[in-house]
Amino acid sequence: MANREENAMWSIFAYLLSGLLFWGGVGYGLDKWLGTSYLTLVGLLVGISGAIYLVWLRFGRQ
């Protein structure tokens, strides 16, 4: 049982980190391409929101 909970913890951590890195990177790239300064923040917010939603879908409804 402890191994299963540890795997769930690492999965949650991976969802959160990958959401931030991917969408933050997309926002950063768009900032550089378009010459803006706010899309990195928008990308980070979209990434963490999407990651929390995926965590809720996977682990919150059990």
Description of the molecule:
- This protein is mainly α.
- The protein has one domain.
- The chain has 2 helices and no strands.
- Helix 1 runs antiparallel to helix 2.
- The longest helix has 33 residues.
- It is elongated and about 50 Å long.
- The two termini are 15 Å apart.
- The mean pLDDT is 92.
Describe the secondary-structure layout:
Elements: H1 2-34, H2 39-60
Helix pairs in contact: 1-2
Task: Tag the structure with descriptive keywords.
mainly alpha, 89% helix, 62 residues, 2 helices
Question: Can you give the helix content as a percent range?
Answer: over 70%
Q: What would you call the structural class? A: mainly alpha
Show unreliable segments. none
Counting copies of identical and different chains, the oligomeric state is single chain
Q: Count of DSSP E strands? A: 0
As a whole number of angstroms, the C-alpha radius of gyration is 14 Å
The helix-strand sequence is HH
- Which band does the percent of strand residues land in? under 5%
- Termini separation (Å)? 15 Å
For the residues shown, what is the average pLDDT? 92
Largest sheet composition: none
Quick overview:
By secondary structure, the protein is an all-alpha fold. Helices cover 89% and strands 0% of the residues.
